């Protein structure tokens, strides 16, 4: 316990799923939290995003640990609004030590409109970079930036995305580009003893994965596939005999990168992927 005691951590997409898991895990280890979420649906995903009620549940779970939390509704695509939310959170909690750019969508599926591409890039790539850059004025020596990437970001290739459609192409593009961003920015940050790393999960058991469009993408052979139909197909992505990892598995990696245990670790791409990449020779 206490691995991040005294630190203040900013997390986007904090209302549920991975973001909530990171918030609670880090609070259990002694951090105060700035939790940001859009708390509204956007146009392209065919599944519901988090609500303000979800964000309040995150608040309650963090407060149960005895740590402080400031929750703000903001859209990572809106740099001005995001900057204001971050500034307000820092003003209330006094500083900022760790940034976790977690917010993201995955509106995949064949035959979907081009907005699935543009909106995914706007949120998953531009929104992640907005989060980091809006936080920079508050980040001093020893700060840690953590990008939540994806195993998809470490698989080369683009173009014909088959059943994944334009949203799938954008998801891969965004996560691939974040890999290069981490590598390039790490060099710029290093002289000031600030660092940036990424965690790359495989399929993760969240509403992003557990959605009808995702079931249809993994089981295009079925007309109306269910979760039970999709899970054997999910399992083919990993070398280990699992359909997905849990949010808590990702949070363990995030905790290490947020802590001073990793104080000399930068530009690391930490895979939490059940062997998904190594079985592809990557």
TrEMBL record:
Source organism superkingdom: Bacteria
Keywords for the protein's UniProt record, in alphabetical order: NAD, Oxidoreductase
Pfam families the UniProt entry points to: adh_short_C2
CDD domains tied to this protein: SDR_c (cd05233)
InterPro entries (UniProt xref): NAD(P)-bd_dom_sf, SDR_fam, SDR_subfam_1
SUPFAM superfamilies tied to this protein: NAD(P)-binding Rossmann-fold domains (SSF51735)
Gene Ontology MF terms: oxidoreductase activity
PANTHER family referenced in this protein's UniProt entry, alphabetically: DEHYDROGENASES, SHORT CHAIN (PTHR24321), ESTRADIOL 17-BETA-DEHYDROGENASE 8-RELATED (PTHR24321:SF8)
Family statement drawn from the similarity comment of this UniProt entry: Belongs to the short-chain dehydrogenases/reductases (SDR) family.
The protein's name in its UniProt record: SDR family mycofactocin-dependent oxidoreductase
Species of provenance: Amycolatopsis xylanica
């Amino acid at each position: 316990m206490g691995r991040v005691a005294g630190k203040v951590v900013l997390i986007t997409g904090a209302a549920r799923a991975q973001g909530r898991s990171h918030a609670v895990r880090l609070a259990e280890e002694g951090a105060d939290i700035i939790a940001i979420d859009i708390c509204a649906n956007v146009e392209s995903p065919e599944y519901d995003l988090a609500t303000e009620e979800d964000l309040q549940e995150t608040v309650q779970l963090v407060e149960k640990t005895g740590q402080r939390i400031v929750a703000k509704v903001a859209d990572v695509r809106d740099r001005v609004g995001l900057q204001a939310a971050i500034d307000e959170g820092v003003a209330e909690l006094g500083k900022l030590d760790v940034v976790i750019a977690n917010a993201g969508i995955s509106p995949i599926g064949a035959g979907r409109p081009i907005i699935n591409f543009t909106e995914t890039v706007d949120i998953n790539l531009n929104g992640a970079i907005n989060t980091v850059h809006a936080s920079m004025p508050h980040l001093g020596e020893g700060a840690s930036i953590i990008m939540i990437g994806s195993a998809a970001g470490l698989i080369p290739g683009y173009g014909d995305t088959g059943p994944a459609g334009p949203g799938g192409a954008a998801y891969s593009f965004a996560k691939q580009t974040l890999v290069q961003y981490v590598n390039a920015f790490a060099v710029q940050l290093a002289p000031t003893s600030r660092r940036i790393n990424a965690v790359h999960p495989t399929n993760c058991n969240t509403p992003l994965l557990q959605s009808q469009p995702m079931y249809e993408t993994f089981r295009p052979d079925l007309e109306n596939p269910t979760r039970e139909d999709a899970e054997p197909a999910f399992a083919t992505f990993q070398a280990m005999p699992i359909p997905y990892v849990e949010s808590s598995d990702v949070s363990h990696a995030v905790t290490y990168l947020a802590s001073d245990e990793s104080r000399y670790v930068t530009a690391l791409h930490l895979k939490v992927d059940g062997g998904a990449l190594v079985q592809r020779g990557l």
